[in-house]
């Protein structure tokens, strides 16, 4: 199992978000090649601006693993995290973040790349086209 495999799992979550009318962002948290959390955006469903896929995934992973720190985990998320989610990643001390499409408008790397914990590794662009196409399709349908 590699980054593309787990990003496909995050994209499954993103497609689920798309199907329920949420901005199609999905995430999974992986520990030693095992998915410990799956999540997608729920901001509309929960009427909660903080209910991003990453936030849902961090909470679920912490509950599954029995602790708030995710040192040895990897977050796979279909879209580059926003500043809020990058801040939450800092506090979770997640070991690695892998994202699909860049978010030139709201992605944290455009504003403050150093927001991540110094020991968190960052990889972007995994299945970026698939992620970007799903987002574009969602917003095209909204117009």
Description of the structure:
- The structure is a single chain.
- The protein is α/β, with parallel strands linked by helices and 143 residues long.
- 41% of the residues lie in helices and 20% in strands.
- The protein is built from 5 helices and 5 strands.
- The chain has a 5-stranded mixed β-sheet with strand order 2-1-3-4-5.
- Strand 1 and strand 2 (34-40) form a beta hairpin.
- Helix 1 (3-19) packs parallel to helix 5.
- It is globular.
- The model has no long low-confidence stretch (mean pLDDT 96).
Quick overview of this protein structure:
The chain has 143 residues and is α/β, with parallel strands linked by helices. The protein has helices at 3-19, 53-65, 83-92, 108-111, 128-142, and strands spanning 26-31, 34-40, 73-79, 96-101, 121-123.
Summarize the amount of helix as a percent range. 40-55%
How would you describe the shape?
globular
Average pLDDT, all residues: 96
What structural class should be given to the helix and strand makeup? alpha/beta
Total number of beta strands: 5
Integer-rounded radius of gyration: 14 Å
Strand content: 15-25%
**Strand order, sheet with most strands:** 2-1-3-4-5
Number of helices: 5
Query: What is the straight-line distance between the termini?
Result: 38 Å
Unreliable parts: none
